[in-house]
Specification:
Elements (H helix, E strand, L loop, with lengths): L8 H9 L8 H22 L10 E2 L2 E2 L10 H14 L5 E6 L6 E2 L9 E9 L10 E9 L17 H4 L8 E7 L3 E6 L4 E7 L4 E6 L10 E3 L10 H11 L11 E2 L5 H11 L2 E4 L12 E2 H14 L3 E3 L16 E2 L1 E4 L1 H12 L20
Parallel strand pairs: 3-5, 11-12, 11-13
Antiparallel strand pairs: 1-2, 3-4, 5-6, 6-7, 7-8, 8-9, 9-10, 13-17, 14-16, 15-17
Helix pairs in contact: 2-3, 5-8
Bound molecules: 2,5-anhydro-1,6-di-O-phosphono-D-glucitol (AHG) and manganese (II) ion (2 copies).
Length: about 375
């Protein structure tokens, strides 16, 4: 009833495609299959305890952990299977990779292969699932390697990790679904960011948030402060200055938020601005950051940049980073452009050395 006048996701994709008269329908078909996967996950999430999908995943041998050593929830495993099932059959993908799979997934021999790769985190923020707080799915679409094109299907090699190690600037599309009070799909195909709300009556994503833009300035930041003793100096400085409020160097009060669901934080930031930080820290020297480059930082990075925001490692644009492994972690800062650039400036400035001499204090004229 409320959706009659709105553009559906299908209509939106068809109209977008008219800009590229030579384009086949594969890309649109892939996005629509991803949308169906997201709708299926939204339903599983909505049934909660009634659906028997809460809690940790277990086999006869006991609980399972993914390649990063994180305990898998039932819904992590289920959502991963839904993504595969919905996208593997159509001949649009050459392979898939996800947070929940150690190695790239090969398209089964009975299905044709296609010209895209799909990389995804099937359920982001899954520690929130048992407490009924928003979770999401996030994905990135890349082109598949050229050498697969000129061989018949049965002579093609498997896709390998190296095929997926493309910088975020090469993404063809990126998006996320947010399973919150409403289910939303937010998508960029490299021409701005558009938000669709799932109409539960029609089961269709309807364009409700065309050309989303992130405000350049903000007074809201998101960081897990329990890690503060492990932060590097530029992040400490940034947060301290925010916390100092009106009487501090920023001369305004800041607000904080932390949902522990990156997708949900990205959505809040798209809607009203803000800055999200999960920086590299010294907590575990084996982990250069918490979030994963290929299926968290890169898709969120493309969405941020396409909405006028910015995504950075703290030092440089996330989208420029050449990945070196499938499950690589990275420091991530994203959101309102002026704040992210400020954090990058703090990283570029020489490290402040504590000094008793007031002339060399942080805000003095003579900073070391
Ligand atoms: P995932 O559930 O896919 O492992 O990702 C969780 C991520 C991210 O969504 C969130 O921002 C962050 O981990 C939360 O980390 P903390 O538990 O350190 O707050
Ligand atoms: Mn995640
Ligand atoms: Mn996940």
């Amino acid at each position: 009833m409320l959706s009659n006048h709105r553009t559906t996701l299908t209509q939106f994709l068809i109209e977008e495609r008219r800009r590229f008269p030579l384009a086949g329908g594969d890309f649109n078909a892939l996005i629509l299959d991803i949308a169906i996967a997201c709708k299926a996950i939204a339903r599983a999430v909505a049934f909660g305890e009634l659906g028997g999908v809460m809690g940790n995943h277990a086999t006869e041998q006991g609980g399972t952990v993914n390649v990063q050593g994180e305990v898998q929830k039932k819904l992590d495993v289920l959502s991963n299977a839904v993504f595969i099932r919905r996208t593997e059959w159509a001949g649009n993908l050459a392979g898939l990779a996800s947070e929940e799979m150690d190695q790239p997934y090969q398209i089964p021999k009975q299905h044709p292969r296609g010209k895209y790769l799909l990389v995804f985190d099937p359920l982001d923020g899954s520690s929130n699932i048992d407490v009924n707080v928003s979770v999401g799915s996030i994905f990135s679409v890349l082109r598949s390697p050229k050498d697969l094109d000129d061989m018949p299907r049965d002579q093609q090699r498997d896709v390998v990790e190296a095929d997926f190690l493309q910088p975020g600037s090469l993404q063809v599309a990126a998006g996320y679904a947010l399973y919150g009070p409403t289910t939303m799909l937010v998508l960029t195909v490299g021409n701005g960011v558009n938000g669709f709300t799932l109409d539960p009556n029609l089961g269709e994503f309807m364009l409700t948030h065309p050309l989303m833009q992130i405000p350049e300035d903000t007074q809201e930041f998101a960081i897990n402060a329990s890690n503060s003793r492990f932060w590097e100096t530029p992040i400490k400085r940034y947060v301290d200055e925010c916390l100092a409020g009106k009487t501090g160097p920023r001369a305004k009060d800041f607000n904080t938020r932390w949902i522990a669901s990156m997708v949900a934080e990205a959505h809040r930031i798209l809607m009203r601005g803000g800055v999200f930080m999960y920086p590299r820290d010294t907590k575990d020297p084996g982990k250069p950051g918490r979030l994963r480059l290929l299926y968290e930082a890169n898709p969120v990075g493309m969405i941020m940049e396409q909405a006028g925001g910015r995504a950075s490692t703290g030092e440089r644009a996330v989208l420029g980073v050449q990945p070196d492994s499938l499950h690589q972690r990275i420091g991530l800062v994203f959101g309102s452009r002026n704040e992210v650039e400020r954090i990058e400036r703090y990283h570029a400035e020489p490290v402040h050395v504590e000094s008793d001499n007031p002339l060399f204090a942080v805000r003095s004229l003579f900073r070391n």
